[in-house]
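Narrative of activities, Objective 1.

The group set out to show that a structural description can be obtained from nothing but a protein's sequence at a throughput compatible with the screening campaign. Below is one input-output pair from the validation batch, recorded exactly as produced.
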Amino acid sequence: EAIKLAGVDQLAIQRAGDNRNAKCVDTDAAISNYAMEQGFGYAAKFTRLRDWLVSRQRYWGTPIPVIHCSKCPEPVPVPDDQLPVVLPPDVTLEGRGGSPLAKLDDWVNVSCPACGSPAKRDTDTMDTFMDSAWYFLRYADPRNSKELIMKESAMEKGTQSLLPVDTYVGGIEHAILHLLYARFIHRFVSSLGLVTSKEPFRHLITQGIVKGKTFKSPGDGRFLKPEEVDVDGDMGVEKSTGLPAIMEWEKMSKSKHNGIDPMDLMSRFGADTIRMYLLGDAPSSQPFKWQEGGIIGFNRLLGRMWAMTKEYGDALEKCRAAGDTLDEDNLDEKHLAAVTTLEKAFHTCIGKASKSFDTQVFTTAIITLFIMSDKLSAAVQHPQLCTTPFLRHCFESHVIMFWPLAPHIAEELWQALEGIHGTENPLRVWQQAWPVVEDFEMFAVDHWTVRVVGDSKLKR
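Output recorded for this entry:
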């Protein structure tokens, strides 16, 4: 049979149309059909779902609702009216010697629900993934104390459906473990008719890991602590030997001594700066190399937003005091050109930023919004424009779109704008309506620059 199978692939390609570029799907089908015709094989599908070992010898976790009785042939489940089994609070965590629950005689020793003989609880707890693999279902019915979830709460309410979850964000470890378990349990819940969807999540985002500079000893290859290395950029020298250390980018961990102190960074730069750096320096699905120089750059950009807003407020106050205002419907040629340029940039910003948020491409959203910051800064150089409702609308919309990326500074800027305009909005920035493109003609391009290449030469 091995000799016969050796010629199957070529034959299958020929049967698929004698095409050397035949698709794999067509080739596979041709091979399967040939095997069935010759009587030595057939097509089959295999699903590799490995066993999930859920028991842990730990305190933290869901107790396994099983009782072991020496007189009963099989483990006895805890009766429904005694569920859930609650972890005892009076436990000593020593970190050794097996499960802490096994040492609590008052909790372990019970009567067998089946025969009444002395028995013992199972002292293992379930993997915490067991809980997190279904907890999202409770958001659809959080106050139900009688069952996991009511059928009606998982179905459509008006124009929105509560389930499945719109977006699942997790690292690579989650994608191959937790995600699999959540799908498995959701399929089970679906088979009971409690939810209408087969899959628990509509969209998956697997974020890249954060890597830090890691230095190894050139002698024994051990990971060096920060105090053991003199660092200059990407180069490092082991202090004890004076030899160049081996530098690599590796996933941050305590054992590799390449982590950072988030509290120290937040005290120096603020949470918003760090958030912007993490979202804006690389696509969320790609590995991320942590470099403090990038944080400083984002900190400066946010500082420019503060300065720009203050400059806008000062210009507006000065023009109002002098009575030097503009009629937006009767602009002179200079101001009309400035407004037209800003209006095109404004609508382009809304369109690009909105699409970027929808697709979770935050790098594009951040770049677009900072470009808009430059346009607003240029507009403020025309002080009279600061008196127009249009420029006010641009500033407010800009802050609203910044809120998902830098929520704290966005709220501060929103309150600053309220002070500048002398108004008090009962709704905070996160409660404002998202800006929309009102004039699609603003996207019209006045002219195109096209490069023409012929005979591998650029034609001018």
